[in-house]
Structures are given as structure tokens and as C-alpha cells.
Amino acid sequence: MAFRKSIRSRRGRRKIHKDFELQLTSMMDILVIILVFLLKSYSTSTNSFSTVPGIKLPISKTDNSPPDSLHLIITPQAITFESNRIVEFVQTADALNGNEPKYDLKTEDTDENGMRIKLLFSALEEARNKAEALRQKSPARDKDGNPLPFDGILAIQADKAVKYDILRKVMYTAGAAQFRVFRMLAMKQDQ
Amino acid sequence: MLKRPSSRRRSNHSEVNVNLVPMLDALVTMISFLMYTMAFLSLTMVESPLPMVSSEENQQQLKEPPLQLTLTVNENDLLIWSPFDRIPQTTIPNTTDKDGNPTPDFLKLHDALLEIKKQFPNETKLVLMPKAYSSYDRIIGLIDASQHLEKTDPVIVVKNKETGVDEPAKTLFSEVVFGNLLGDDK
Fold first, then answer.
1. Which domain holds residue A32?
2. Per the domain annotation, does A118 fall within a domain?
3. Which parts of chain A have pLDDT scores under 50?
4. What is the mean pLDDT of each run of 10 residues along chain B (186 residues)?
5. Are A152 and A179 within 8 A, CB to CB?
6. What is the pTM of this model?
7. Residue A175: its chain B contacts at CB < 8 A?
8. Domain boundaries, chain B
């Protein structure tokens, strides 16, 4: 049966005229419309900030495109620095009572009255040392001939639900590692 | 110019078929390139410097006490104040969002800060003091309301420090600093 069908279909295929031409005009129209739309809404980014799945960024009205810098991501579950997961939070007991789950740092992960995150501090210090070593080797110098100072800029990308308590511990730790400027990332609001 | 009837009869009406395949190839390639290089996630940033402690000598050198505009986030309201009493305290009660949850009244905050900016046009600093439970979303909203000037806002003229020329202000309070990084609140 299947054999007969295949013969029939092959015969049917032969019926197509040799001078048959596919009408491409309508397809061209669609493609041109897509192209115009893409060109209109085209935007490129000069930074290489990645994100993690599931993170919900807040929306901001500002229009400052963030330049490349060291990048820290805070999700409700963990802290990631330069694509390395540094600290994982623990779930507090609130979730057991049917409330919204809350996350906090483990006591052994912090020092200085729970303000400095130890593993994050080590990672930030290492990044600063690396950046300073690169600047020493770089031919770029200031007017006195010294290597350019460490800029100390840290881009922070946090989930909109992350609490200030965690955020300030991160900023405190970064401040201890001589980071002086924090760039808080958000999604640009459509104009 | 009109053609003679005889030449019109002689005109060639044969159908011309334009080969669209190369054009189609070019379009598909361009669309693929654009879609590959396009930044679908459009990021923006708000900048905040690490707070610095000013020395007593610096403070004594000032002719008059600084404004040190401070915005404290309380559970039910926002408080705008100055530690040196340069402005009267303003309390902005929370409002509700579209889901009925309490949220800071960003519009009223913006209007109140706009009035302060009119009084102190050259002031650029604002000390933000959120509570430990304030969410990142709220903090970004507060910084936005404190920094961003809307197109509908009245023009505030400020003196350019470098050129000394008067020009319209581009931002409200551009330097937002966190005043309680050391964690003196819960």
C-alpha cells in the first residue's frame, strides 16, 4: 500500500510544469517590513554584562548606558561575582510558616558584626589586585608618570526583591575592598 | 512627449521578470545579522558613590551649615529633612500601588524635592537612608525620583561651576549617597 502511494506521489510530482516560478514578491514585502522594524528598534550595547536566569530587574527612567566594569549579581538565592558563584544564602524559617520565603547570609560567612561578607571580600580583593597589576604593566600613565589608580567601580545587578540589608552588606564589603563607586543596574523604561 | 500611434503599436510588451533571489538572500542575511547583534535587554544604571566622612576642619571652614538633604524611608512614609535644619521637615505618606500594596509616593516625593531644588539650585547631593527591609526595586524608584527631571518639570537654572554660565539643570539631585551603610537601623 505504502509502495503504491509513493509511486502515485512521484507521478504527481512530475505534473509540475518546468516553467513554474515561485512568487517571492509577498515574501520580500514581509522581509522588508521586518528589516525596517529591526533597524528602527536596533540598539547595541558596548558592555558585556550577562545576567542569570530568573532574575527580575527593576525599571528605571534614567538613560545612562553602563560602561564595562566588574560585575556582581545578587539574586534572592546567591551572590555571583564575575560569573563565579561566591555565596549562597540560606532560607529563613519564615517559609516553613507558609510565609514568603526569605533568604539571609549564614553567620559563618560574615565577620565585622555580620557586615562584611568574607568570601566576597576575598574575591573583590583578588579582582582589585589583578586590576592594579594590569595597570602597572599598562603604558597608560598619569601626568607624573605613575600608573593610573584603580577606578574602584562595581556594577551591581540585583533582583528587584533583594532587600537593602543584603545590598548594604555587599556595598560595605566592596567599600572595605576599596571599591568607591557603585553602579546599580536596572532595565531601561520604554520612552 | 507623446508617441506616434504607429510607434505605440510597435512597443514591446514582453514581461520582464526581476530575479528576486539574490535580494532575498541579502535580506535574510541582514535580518539574521541584526537579530544576532541586537541588545534585547536594554540596561541602564544609577550611580552612587561610597559615603565619605568629612573632617571637622572642613566643616568649620564652611561659612554656613550645609543642607545635607536627607531622605529617610520609614515603614509608612518618607521623611525629607536636613540635620542642620536648613529646610522644614516634610513627611510624605505612602500610597498604594495597582495591587493595593503600600508603596512610597514617588510623585509627591519628586514634587517635594523639586521645590527644594528651586531653593538650593546648586545642591546636588542627597543622603538616602532606606530601611533594612526596603527592596532594591523601591531603592531604584527612590533614586529615580530624586535624580530624574521630567520633561514637564519647570526649568531650574543652575550655575555651571566650570564656565560660570547659567544653564538649565539636567538632573535633580545627581549624587545619591547611602547614609546608613554601617547598618544603624533595622
1. 2-40
2. yes
3. none
4. 59 71 92 84 86 66 81 93 91 90 92 92 91 92 91 86 84 90 64
5. yes
6. 0.78
7. 50, 181
8. 66-178
Is residue A78 less than 8 Å (CB to CB) from chain B?
no
pLDDT score of A112 = 86
ipTM of the complex: 0.77
Strands B166-168, B102-103: parallel, antiparallel or unpaired by DSSP? unpaired
For A66-105, letters b (16+ CB in 10 Å) and e give: beebbbbbbbbbebbbeeeebbebeeeeeeeeeeeebbbb
Predicted confidence at residue B10, as pLDDT, reads 56
What CA–CA distance (Å, rounded) separates A149 from A151? 6
B177 touches chain A (CB under 8 A): no
Considering only CB atoms, B181 lies closest to which of A41, A59, A171, namely A171
Phi, psi of A139 (to 5 degrees): -70, -15
Provide the pairing of β-strand A153-158 with A181-188. parallel
Q: Does B155 touch chain A (CB under 8 A)?
A: no
Nearest residue of chain A to residue B28 (CA atoms): A31
pLDDT, position A3: 52
Residue A54 lies in a domain: no
Task: Note whether residue A14 is domain-resident.
Answer: yes
Residue B2 sits at the chain A interface (C-beta within 8 Å)? no
Same domain, A130 and A181: yes
In this structure, the answer to whether residues A135 and A108 fall within a common structural domain is yes
